[in-house]
Amino acid sequence: APEQAARMKKLQEQEKRQKVEFRKRMEQEVSQFIQATGEPRRRFQPMNKIERSILHDVAEVAGLTSFSFGDDEDSRYVMVFKKEFAPSDEELDAYRRGEEWDPARAEERRRLRELAAQQEEAELECSPAPPGPPNDYKDKYRHLIGSDAAKAAARTMEANKAYGCVPVANKRDTRSIEEAMNEIRAKKRLRQAEDE
Fold this sequence. Notes:
Blueprint: H1 2-35, E1 41-43, H2 49-62, E2 65-69, E3 77-81, H3 89-96, H4 103-126, H5 137-140, H6 142-145, H7 149-156, H8 177-195
Antiparallel strand pairs: 1-3, 2-3
């Protein structure tokens, strides 16, 4: 048991050293990426979950935007973007689908979507109006309610301050709670006596 504990401790220290070395290497690569002026994004090799989290942390500290892409745990990779070249939603969707981002193709898709929307709008304008009543129902009753009856009612309407308060005279049961409970107990005792 002591040997196994020593081996475990040694393995943990070795893993910790590897993580520190990996972080230093990623910090160097990220700083090189920041200094490269013509590179708006950089794709890193596939990594495991811990390495990806370290790279995301390094990118965040450096003020960059980072995303992970890929389906399998073994093939997931990280892409780092400079803030001024942050990816659009369409670009992110392309990477998630496993495609390379092509701005010309994305512009073509956007243009096609706009054309489809315009055609749909034109079809709606050309189509007949949906079936409905030929006139407003209020016209039928205008002689009864008038044209501005609702506006006048809204102006004169006031909240009833006594809403929910019922006068004692209007209550059906005028007994107090104690009297009602005593009556219920008496009926219960009478039933029990009859059952016995």
